[in-house]
Amino acid sequence: MKDYRVAWFVGVVWILVATSSSAEPNAAQPADPSLWVARAIVWLRKGDDDKALDGLSEATRLDSKNAFAFASRASLYYRRQQYDAALSDADRAILLAPKQEYGFTVRGTTRLALQQFDKALGDLDEAIRLGASDVATIANRALVHFSMRHLDAAIADLTQAISIKSDDPRLYQLRAGAWEMKGDRASAIIDLTEYLRLRPDDVDAYFVRASIFAEDEEFEKALSDFAEMIRLAPDSAIAYAGRAGCR
Q1: Tens of pLDDT along 112-149?
Q2: How does pLDDT run across 152-172, given as a tens digit for each residue?
């Protein structure tokens, strides 16, 4: 059960997306690289990654020193799991604007995806030092800390992220994992309960909480969670097996 729990706790992904004006850009200035970046952001929000990539590529063609355009394209390459291209564009953004956080943010996030944890931590530390204060960057650094078993640091980052965005269930999911690894199962249960309040149909989360209850011999609570699993997923063999083990 422990391996299953760890896999669920880290089943968290924060997708990095560059942000800009949400207004529909004016098509009257096709040679303006900033306009192409703005267009790309709109296309990203509409889910048209191909048009967004074309727009960002045009922006970098028109202005090869536009660090934000390279960082934005890097974040798009990251979304598409084209990690080599993402790193290349992030490197270019950092070279052009070493005192701006966005290049470090996307490079750190990409290195996290590649499980290059030491390098990812260095980049995300630098991004935050330079002023990045968004939930995604803080949470991704927490995920790096968790992966490196820096549990106190992970909890600190997640607590900060929750103070900014308390309705994101993924933050409670990962912090519950950190608490559980530290042996603070009571705090893990509190975070799992909050996660389930925000995401009440997650069958796997009920199993994770039930397994902790069962190991702590709180069988009535475990049985309640296994019963909820069965209600949500009547064909779940693991739920029936878990319930049988508590009787």
Answers
A1: 999 999 999 999 999 999 999 999 999 999 999 999 99
A2: 999 999 999 999 999 999 999
Give the number of other Cβ atoms within 10 Å of residue 221's Cβ: 16
Number of structural domains (the chain) is 1
Domain hosting residue 149, numbered range:
2-168
Residue 150: inside a domain: yes
Q: Using the CB atoms, write b or e for 36-65: b if 16+ within 10 Å.
A: bbbbbbbbbeeeeeeebbebbebbbebbee
The C-alpha atoms of residue 32 and residue 55 are separated, in whole angstroms, by 11
User: What does residue 218 show for φ and ψ, rounded to 5 degrees?
Assistant: -95, 75
The helix/strand count (H/E) of the chain reads as: 14, 0
For 25, the token pair is 């850009």
Residue 58 sits in a domain whose CATH number is 1.25.40.10
For residue 49, being part of any structural domain is answered with yes
Q: Would 204 be classed as within a structural domain?
A: no
Residue 179 lies in a domain: no
